[in-house]
Amino acid sequence: MNFYDLAKQVIQQMNQPLSPSEIWDKAVELGLDKQLITKGKTPWATLGARLYTDVINNPNSIFEPVGKNPKRFGLKNMTANQPSILPTSVIEPIIKVEKFTERDLHPLLVKFADSFFHFRGAKLKTIFHENSLKQKKGYNKWIHPDLVGVYFSFNDKLREYEKVIIDFQNDFSITATKLFSFELKIRVDISNLREYYFQAVSNSSWANEGYLVTLKLDDEVIEEARRLANSFGIGLIKLDAENVEEGQILVPATYRKEIDIDSMDRLASENKDFANFLQNIINDKKIKKVNSRYDKVMEDAEIHKYLNDKAIK
Fold this sequence. Notes:
Elements: H1 3-14, H2 20-30, H3 43-57, E1 63-66, E2 72-75, H4 76-80, H5 106-115, E3 123-126, E4 147-152, H6 163-171, E5 177-188, H7 193-202, E6 209-217, H8 221-232, E7 235-238, E8 248-251, H9 261-270, H10 272-287, H11 300-309
Helix pairs in contact: 1-2, 2-3, 9-10
């Protein structure tokens, strides 16, 4: 069974248009997920992307979009025979107000970056906005990222490079260090995507790669984030609180070889956490060893207990 078969069967059984997440939840309830042929770690996201692409690019698609925010999908024959199903009649889902904060998610992102293959053991550090010079209300959120990160080739988690290779990289200006910027949110949906995305754009020009990171994500965000990334280069990361390793880069960031030194200087002058982060990099590169203090990477048992205690799901 492929994603289109799964969606068709669920929509037929429910006899009404459904969002990709609703289709997936019902498929799991019916046990259809067990019949799906996929190796992806986030099949619900893949399902949404496939449906959006199909209705846009396939003139013979059996699916038909209905409404928006969130967009649902019905079958063409079904929606034609059910004129009473209108976008205005769709009941918007109630967004649960979480008891945890964005900053409570920092240890989850730190753990993810330590184990995910793309970051290869990058070291992350929280930037506390309250430690910045006082500015007008709302100014700092457009200047300071939530977390910053650095990858050192001498601390690569996937491959232990020979010392001569590390020296070669440094001497010939081959990338031996990579800088990351992260803007972290609890939930990203189509109504807040552009605000959050351009917040990430604004505070990441100093880094080689910038990311908007979220724990919860509406399916229709992915395609729009891809379009934005084509123009502005900010990637999108979806975290997974139940299984840290199931987190994923849904939209890759564009690597910037040239970084904005002026933005870096402004950040360092306004926030001591960022200045200390840069000094840590200088110190660690000199001795080719991670000897500075970055955010702690929790052990597996520790991070699971932390997430349970914070009710982060």
